[in-house]
Amino acid sequence: MLKTFRRLQHLLRPGRQRDLAEELQDHLARQAADGIPAREFGNDLRLRERSREAWGWMWLDNTARDLRHAVRRLRRSPGFTAVAVASLALGIGVNLAVYSLVDAIALQPLDLPHPDRLISLAWTAQGWSYPSGWGTNYNDLSGRQIDTSFSNPQLVAWNQQPRRAVAQLAGMRPLNRVDLSVNGTAKLGSALLVSESFPSVIEVPPALGRGLDAADFAAGAQPVAVLTYAYWRDQLASDPDVVGKTLAINRFPLTIVGVESSRFQRLDLEHTPDVLLPLPLVESPLMAGILRNPPHLSDGKFGFLEVVGRLAPGATLEQARTELALSFRQQTQSLPKDADNRGDRPALLVFSARNAINNQGADLEIPMLILGGLTLLVLLIVAVNLANLLLARSAALRAELAIRMALGAGRAALLRQQMIECAVLAAVGALASLPLALASAHAISRVLLPLTPVNSEPRLDFSVLLVAAGLAVAAALLSGLIPAWRSTRLHAESGLRPASSAPGGHGRVARSLIVAQIALCLTVLSGGSLFLRSIRNLKTTPTGLDARGLTLFALNPAHEGYSGARLGTLFDQILSQLRATPGIEQATESQIILGGDDMESTRSLSLGPQPLPAGAHGPRTFLAVVGTQFFPTYRIRLLAGRDFSPLDTASAAPVAIVSRDMAKRFEGPPLGRRFYLGPRQLTVIGVADNTVYNGVRSNHDAVVFLPVAQSLATLADIAFVVRSALPTPALASIFRSVVHAADPSIPVGRVQTQLDAMEESYAAEQLIATLSSVLAALALALAAIGLYGLMAYAVAQRAREIGVRMALGARRASVLALFLRQTAALVALGAAVGLPLAWYSSRAFSSLLFGVAPGDPATLAAAAAFLLLVALAAAWRPARRASRLDPLQTLRCD
Question: Checking CA distances to 351, which of 47, 251, 456, 491 falls within 20 to 30 Å?
């Protein structure tokens, strides 16, 4: 240990080389004084080397020397260094940007104590569902439908059973788009209904006042609320006296008892609550205008709670699932069967909620995997391109390498020096990539916000720096290993020959790398082309409506106590004001936004002479409650019958207009036919052309349109739609003034164009198409640079051959064609490898394509043809320079 310490002390002491030289000189002086010849002392340099070996680590000295040498060589080649560093910065930067986004979306843990012990529950079944529900479901990567809704009796049963693996379980239900008011002005916000054990799950004390306690959940308890920290800070300016004030939610008064800790923001990626409420309020008048039939907490047939919990210390997810599965199986077996329940039993699932509950963000898993794969391909292209540059550079420096070998340098020393040079390039490229990665991640996250809020802003934390270091090491190894190995295969004798006569395989290796680069580039380019074609198809697919010039905004007057005839009067007042406003051509109202993702469907529709029996289900049918002039405003064709009119009031006979696909369900002409929607009998008065309903991907849904005036009893929120050439900001001001004139207490919801609403249904595809096209352009540029460098090097190496050819009568056009043919041959070889790879990889994202098949031959052929054109353009300048060589001057110089 003491010896190691002394060696470290010697290594770190400044001026150690000077001290060693002085000590050796002192020994020589003493020997000379004693009459001993200097030659008996030995070789001075050899003695210094032995001393360094005894007192230091030679490998560290050698590495430092090679590092200094690599820096000097790179500084002497600024052009090469700039191109290499820029390529690496782009390749590493795009990978870091994607990683930081994935980290912000899915990898950052929730800011709660012991996030690794947080769990969420779900279930899956192909032929089973709760008889009624108000839940959330999604499809995972394997195609399973995952449902996250449970009944309150199931939660109570779990909490009453003895448990060892699960420490706490709690239920919650988000309430979106509620009217929140503390100081008299209502604003749209969101609430979260939570069960009594919820504070024990999040395990954070409130920042102000108190949290919800057992008394708040007792029967007859005073309605109370706990604000989240963000709402208290942003909307109430961190009012220290907020505790005890009254908060109105949809005009329902509650007493504020506390403010949650800043550590609690959300438990899932899709809902950010402003206020926490006791679960029993789901049976209070608070729910008026939110849900037509609010659930009873004792109803075991109604699934509406999302269940979260905490594992006991040391417990596993599988132990928790086994512990809870028996009670869940018993509860579901006792439920009555409906048309969906074909005898299957649901299987309980337990997920880790370390990052978010219920595996939220699953709809982004496939896009992020695709984006990650494309960026890794780009990094691989960068590495291959850099390897080619290093090969050409090592060939140009082979005389220097040969001299070093002739002077005794070993192959290991040459290999180490070449790899250290690659490591320096990769390190500088990684450092240069950090600001580029952060800027790119912030820009992409702004696009992602309509899809899902991120857990945190993308930032350069330790994990991002670690990934950057890993990518830099990978890039250095991928790009430097082959050139470094090739340089060590050089013989001193051949390296000292002229370039034109020295044998070597650089050309073959370089061409092989170019073929690999073209194959990878074609894979990225074909993927981007498929996404661009898919987006073009989504934008140009027939929708059955004219979205240009349509702007809409949402209202929920039911939150402010409007219902029945009073609600209809408000709608009429707002519509009449909008229609009388200069610049607005038409105005109507609709409960759903066509082409968006806010669908409403029913299975209570019966085409027979009687309504469906209780508990029976018919075919799935979409519903759309719309106002007068809806079809003219949207310019949807009426194929038969008439439009809704002001005479279709609540006291008139119930009527409906059906879509063309819905009309096909009737036997014979649909006009005048009667059918049942639940217990109500309706008469078909018109047939409308098919239009997009649930996203632009589906324009063949069976839709029943109902008039607003006859649906006021069940109507909650509504969207007003206007056709106007006025810009959106001007219309937003008009909307707010019109609504404020009707009732100042009603907040105006989001104002957006119809085109924006439709584009949100394919926002993930739009994101991937945009980014993949950027990556494809980057891959093309890198391939062009690689081909240009290869052709330029080939021209320089074959200058004597070209001179001989031209001296023997070869024409300039034939020399030009020679190099262009070689380029085309390389592209053909790369395409032969890349097309099968592109075809196979495109199958991984087939679910995101629309109107184009994965591995579409026309798209792949177009990508290959475009790549060939870019390659020929890159090779044109070197080939043209070769065709203009002067044979006499070339041969004279040689």
Answer: 456
